[in-house]
From TrEMBL, chains A, B:
Name listed for the protein in its UniProt record: Protein phosphatase 1M isoform X2
InterPro entries xref list: PP2C, PPM-type-like_dom_sf, PPM-type_phosphatase-like_dom
Gene3D superfamilies according to UniProt: PPM-type phosphatase domain
PPM-type phosphatase domain segment(s): 100-456
Gene encoding the protein: PPM1M
Amino acid sequence: MSADWFRRRFLPGGPLPAPRPPRPRASPVPYRRPRFLRGSGSSPGTADASCRPNARPVRSPVRGRALPWNAGYAEIINAEKSEFNEDQAACGKLCIRRFEFGVEEDQEWLTLCPEEFLTGHYWALFDGHGGPAAAILAANTLHSCLRRQLEAVVEGMVAPQPPMHLSGHCIRPSDSQFVEEKGIRAEDLVVGALESAFQECDEVIGRELEASGQVGGCTALVAVTLQGKLYVANAGDSRAILVRRDEVRPLSSEFTPETERQRIQQLAFLYPELLAGEFTRLEFPRRLKGDDLGQKVLFRDHHMSGWSYKCVEQSDLKYPLIHGQGRQARLLGTLAVSRGLGDHQLKVLDTNIQLKPFLLSVPQVTVLDMDQLEPQEEDIVVMATDGLWDVLSNEQVARLVRSFLPGNREDPHRAKGAVATEDSNIASQNHLRARCSVSVHHGQQQVCLPHPQTQP
Amino acid sequence: MSADWFRRRFLPGGPLPAPRPPRPRASPVPYRRPRFLRGSGSSPGTADASCRPNARPVRSPVRGRALPWNAGYAEIINAEKSEFNEDQAACGKLCIRRFEFGVEEDQEWLTLCPEEFLTGHYWALFDGHGGPAAAILAANTLHSCLRRQLEAVVEGMVAPQPPMHLSGHCIRPSDSQFVEEKGIRAEDLVVGALESAFQECDEVIGRELEASGQVGGCTALVAVTLQGKLYVANAGDSRAILVRRDEVRPLSSEFTPETERQRIQQLAFLYPELLAGEFTRLEFPRRLKGDDLGQKVLFRDHHMSGWSYKCVEQSDLKYPLIHGQGRQARLLGTLAVSRGLGDHQLKVLDTNIQLKPFLLSVPQVTVLDMDQLEPQEEDIVVMATDGLWDVLSNEQVARLVRSFLPGNREDPHRAKGAVATEDSNIASQNHLRARCSVSVHHGQQQVCLPHPQTQP
């Protein structure tokens, strides 16, 4: 993606893109639930929840269908917010081909080297909006993008240190010294591969949605285990935490118009054309009205963490680039997240103002060294979309997980049980807290960290 | 500052600025050392250091001249790197006028309200480059800018909660609810005032340097105490730490081309004209040469925290936007810091490529609630330019401070003694570590946190 592309794509008056040959319209992306839910009905999670007439049913994989590492998964059926459940999930084994075997390859050496593949695991949650298509495409595609990106750098990942040149040819003897000075390690290549995979997947989604005439976007939260490390990549407002006996550790940050305010305002400062004169990039505590004109009111601009006062002018009365607070915060009055996949055609209602230039598809990646962590049998990673975190805090989720697991120590599917317990809890809570639950629609997934006795 | 201004100022081919009336050239900014050093000679700090023939002398205020809060200050004379010591310092009491007394003011009320001023303290270090002028202007100006910015919002600072409207008129009854939802507190106004003051000071420096035909820039590290809080504002690579009996707490982060790589690369992505085709925005472990062409080498772009490989093209052989590692990292091959004041006219040697668009004058501000901290008598804040931190770690500085203070508990000027001890240590270390000390030129200052018994 070049600056030229950015301007052509998003700025008015830029040179027109070369005309594309007309492409036959592809069929719409077919709706589906995650593969591992096949055979599972929509059933209330517990007897208690089923007693409540309005409790929302919890779905999880049928007994006997194991997810990698005996992970648990459960989802609450969409609260009739849209026709389809817009959330999706995916998991599976990652097989990264380590070597390209050419004709000149020494066949004897091949048999001496059984580790032809580097293997890992992959879990992903996608929280869709504006239709289920983007989340379905992401669930179908992102793991393939990641595998491709990892295979492109795998030689560097398995070397003692990523070499300056991937070919292994040493152009300059001092190359390894430069790599060392920059502190580049194998895990940086996995982080880079995750970043590139999200971008590649975003491009695929853009092409597919355009071809099928569909719209929509989704957040993406991905956990990958590889070479003794856990990578958590997040673009959006989902969240992953690690629950241990004495600790709750956040593994991701949320990306919303609020948390990324300065980046978004900065872009609007550099390219005010993106707002088409309809929005103000300044933040005020509330939307200003005519009677605020001439008053000195609290405001923040792109370079400010603190607040100051400014005298209100006519242009400050425009609708704010970022408006609202907490869960209500919206980008251009339209979108509640600032990172994710898709949304290539999304515009502000009844305008030509595009949201995509303000969105990032690139995730933030957290790396956890599982050897240094000395994982215990009861350690659990909880990944969930905002539906869970809107109603339960990290500590509340940790308490639920901790209270369920000890009594089910012998059950290899205990993570599944734990996740169903949480969801039942939410399903009944939602019933009690109807106001909060209106937009609660979430998938949720749990992953056991590898204890020697439990790791398959 | 508007986007329009940004483009006119920095992009080629933008509309020409309106011609300015010729301004009589002002006289150059006169050189000086900080006021509180008057009367102090250049003397080696300790007998031990003075025995070494090449030990660099340490300067500190003469005995009897107390800095606010009995702070200590010491500087090592510039190692003949330039004709003048490019570092500057300033400190003093901040008096913020709380009320504008108009003719309609009730005089009786005035006498009932003795707290006409809000008072605080101010300490600042400026590490100059490209000449001493910018640092001198900053030391002369920044505290006035800050006072002005604080006075503009002081009514909001002394209210129980900053009001939506500074006038105090409540336009809408729900205003305070919006302020509360955004979590806006008095300290956010001080942070905002510090951010605005740095920007205002940067503009003053730009005008003054242009008028006097001088050049240069400086970093700025400022500590302010106000209403029971300590604010540390930093733009550049200086550093402040809090040393306590059992803890060393960083109070600032460094801003260099390395730590701000993604911000700088992002701007070059959005406005490639700023590089005039002479630089590449991509980062490689080392500068690429002709024999790297066609190879797959490690690289990072603006959206990447991790690393990946790319096939080297001709354009990748250009000089990198950010080059080098650690202390050697340079922006456009020219500057070692990415935030600070001044440098308005700085260009890459023999080109028209400007550095200013990549520099931020806005500081990052850390807030320390001194009541929550429960300060102890031996707590010390150490502020120093990179000259100190290049040769001593936070822990080493803490050890020096802790070893000096207990034996001097009765001395009200003990912070001054502690700082001289450190500087002597550096002066002699520099002698021993000549390679490291070449560019060591620093001011350094210590501030006692307010213990009830020591606070004046």
